[in-house]
Specification:
- The chain has 115 residues and is of the alpha+beta class.
- It has one domain: Orthogonal Bundle (Arc Repressor Mutant, subunit A), CATH 1.10.10.
- Helix content is 70%, strand content 12%.
- The protein has four helices and two strands; from the N terminus they run αααββα.
- The chain has helices spanning 4-16, 22-29, 33-46, 69-113, and strands at residues 49-55, 61-67.
- It has a two-stranded antiparallel sheet.
- Helix 1 (4-16) packs across helix 4 and helix 2 (22-29) crosses helix 3 (33-46).
- The protein is elongated.
- The termini are far apart.
- Residues 80-113 form a coiled coil.
- This is Regulatory protein MarR.
- InterPro entries: Cro/C1-type_HTH, MarR_EPS, WH-like_DNA-bd_sf, WH_DNA-bd_sf.
- Residues 11-32 form the HTH cro/C1-type domain.
- Keywords: Coiled coil.
Length: 115
Amino acid sequence: MLDETTHYSLLKTLEENPGLSQRDLAKRLGVSLGKINFCLNALVQKGSLKINNFRNSDNKLAYAYLLTPSGVEQKARMTVEFLKIKIREYERLRTEIEELQREAEQKNLLEKAHE
């Protein structure tokens, strides 16, 4: 299966663009076509995704990948978890930036004292 970030991105992309081909999904997510196929089948097996056939503008048979209520719920839970992770990452970065700014300010003061 995909790592959590790619898994979330797949669910988000499918929710926003259910008519994308597997090839387009693979390109957008930066994974192989085989991995997308495997993951879509796994999501269908878990009941998170259903596949509908439709005719596209070229009158060719295409597929729409639709999140089921279970899939929507799964994506919502993942959204909350990713938000928590991103907030923690932001806090760590903010602390690191503040430390670097203090260090730069101290060095600047030291350089001025040597002039």
